[in-house]
Prior knowledge:
- The structure is a homodimer of 163-residue chains.
- With 163 residues, chain A is an alpha/beta fold.
- Chain A is 45% helix and 18% strand.
- In chain A, strand 3, helix 4 and strand 4 form a beta-alpha-beta unit.
- In chain A, helix 1 packs parallel to helix 5.
Amino acid sequence: MKNKDILFLNEALKEAAKALSYKEVPIGAVIVKETKIIGRGFNKKEFLQNPTSHAEIIAIEEASQTLNSWRLTGTTLYSTVEPCIMCCGAIIQARISRIVYCIPDEKFGGVESLFSIFSNEKLNHSVKVEKIYLPRAKELLQNFFKTIRKNRYNFTNFSQEET
Amino acid sequence: MKNKDILFLNEALKEAAKALSYKEVPIGAVIVKETKIIGRGFNKKEFLQNPTSHAEIIAIEEASQTLNSWRLTGTTLYSTVEPCIMCCGAIIQARISRIVYCIPDEKFGGVESLFSIFSNEKLNHSVKVEKIYLPRAKELLQNFFKTIRKNRYNFTNFSQEET
């Protein structure tokens, strides 16, 4: 199972890398039924100016189109980062059976960071959660934020020169 | 404030009534900036076979298109029913400032029923919450589920006759 999981997490990482070319925070996701990818997505929030355009939401919507059903029971969602509260809620709404992700999101994460959404016993749907750390997921984010900070620094210097 | 809130909740109720004509669970939402509605939505989950097509998500996406921005700071979201976990997360992602709703959702509600998402002190965004009970919100849901049960009963009787 772990080899298969790493294979699909690498597909999610390919999605995350695509986000970089859109200058978006590099997060990617894929949804798998049996051994087939039925939905893919990467963060497009800034590009689309749409607050719901997270990698997981885009992948869920594509998977629902593929199956022509809102029920994604029996599927696994792979994400490079811990899903946020919105995406955890979407995972429940879509009845996704299992999720696998690489690194936590301390600011918005709904699996372990801000809430443990899937541990709520009142929920009428259960989601299996697995964490597999792949360094590439963290590297992508770290490099992205390093570039952002560097550009901001350059911009600040530039602004100071201008005024 | 309350008169204005009731006015906009009634607009959300108009959206909920539209959902009925799609044979959807009747939930509606509008988003207001100052005194103008900038987004409207009603539940279309079954119609679109999309698990994310809740009234609030559709209204948020429309409001972002209207403002050409994912940031909906300073807006109020009116919903006929307590937003679910996914929609609470989307409200945070969109930086919506205030929400008003009519009735709780014991099965999926993220404001008071399953979680108190907006009370989490670790969140870097705060959302004001108000509840204004309008009987019409409950009536719409009750009538919808009564019809569903009746049809199911008729279908069961029919099936029993068939076998």
